[in-house]
């Protein structure tokens, strides 16, 4: 249940087409759907403005399909599924008509009308999968996206060509592995809200993204928020909500 559905239910009580007991029952029984292996949160969109997201890693294809079906039945927004396997993606495409995939991130159903704009910068091609998770999450959470790829600090002149995307963004997401230096550089160029995503890309002393994480946490540029290693989803949600609010 989302805010529009709750409003419709209350209007039904006001005009007499829905009884108070029926409305109370809907509110009381709708908070979650008890599936075989999970309790799907059906009131998250009502509380936060955004529906629950299905984390695909560690779940079977059947578990993902059940959760997606329950969420699609409860609202009109696309259901976002992250970290899906190729097998699960194929199954989703067999069952649902509207399936948009970018790497291991999938949106099932119609995407919302975008409000605001997010620029997603990836330092290198190897950071692309995490940047893809950011970008599709931003779209599923209601903002438009400008992707800028392969603009790492080893070739700073490439970043200068991205100024139009940076200037037009309501929020910026910077994805980088190795030394994690790109967010500090971008943070020195713009005053836009920015979130940095460290990735696990790099050689041995990068320690699976810990080096990039520490660099970003210690950024000299002010205003750099940092999410966990490879957490493109978390960065996408943050950026979309910032951009939506600014656009509103």
**Total number of distinct structural domains:** 2
Major pleated sheet: 5 strands, parallel
**% residues in beta strands:** 15-25%
Under the CATH scheme, which class of the largest domain?
Answer: Alpha Beta
End-to-end Cα distance, whole Å, is 22 Å
The strand order across the widest sheet is 8-7-9-10-11
How many helices? The count is 11
CATH architecture of the largest domain, by name, is: 3-Layer(aba) Sandwich
Number of strands: 11
SS content category: alpha/beta
Portion of residues in helices?
40-55%
| Poorly predicted regions | none
Describe the structure.
Helix 6 links the parallel strand 7 and strand 8 (144-148). The two termini are 22 Å apart. The chain has eleven helices and eleven strands. It is of the alpha/beta class and 248 residues long. The longest helix is centred in the last third of the chain and has 16 residues, at 232-247. Helix 4 (61-74) packs across helix 5 and helix 6 runs parallel beside helix 11. It has a five-stranded parallel sheet with strand order 8-7-9-10-11.
């Amino acid at each position: 249940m989302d805010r529009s559905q709750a409003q419709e239910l209350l209007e039904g009580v006001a005009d007499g087409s829905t009884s108070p007991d029926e409305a109370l029952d809907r509110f009381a029984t709708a908070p979650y759907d008890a599936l075989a292996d999970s309790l799907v949160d059906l009131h998250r969109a009502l509380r936060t403005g955004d529906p629950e997201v299905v984390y695909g890693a560690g779940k079977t294809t059947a578990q993902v399909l059940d959760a997606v079906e329950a969420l699609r039945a409860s609202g009109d927004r696309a259901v976002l599924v992250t970290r899906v396997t190729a097998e699960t993606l194929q199954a989703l495409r067999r069952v649902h008509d509207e399936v948009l995939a970018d790497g291991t991130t999938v949106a099932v159903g119609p995407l919302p009308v975008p409000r605001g704009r997010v620029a997603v910068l990836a330092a290198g091609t190897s950071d692309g999968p995490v940047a893809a998770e950011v970008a599709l999450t931003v779209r599923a959470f209601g903002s438009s996206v400008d992707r800028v790829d392969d603009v790492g600090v080893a070739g700073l002149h490439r970043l200068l060509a991205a100024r139009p995307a940076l200037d037009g963004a309501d929020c910026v997401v910077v994805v980088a592995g190795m030394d994690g230096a790109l967010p500090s550089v971008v943070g020195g160029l713009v005053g836009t809200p920015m979130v940095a995503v460290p990735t696990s890309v790099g050689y041995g002393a990068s320690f699976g993204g810990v080096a990039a994480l520490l660099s970003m946490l210690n950024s000299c540029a002010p205003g750099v928020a940092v999410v966990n290693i490879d957490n493109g989803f978390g960065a996408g949600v943050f950026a979309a909500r910032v951009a939506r609010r600014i656009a509103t």
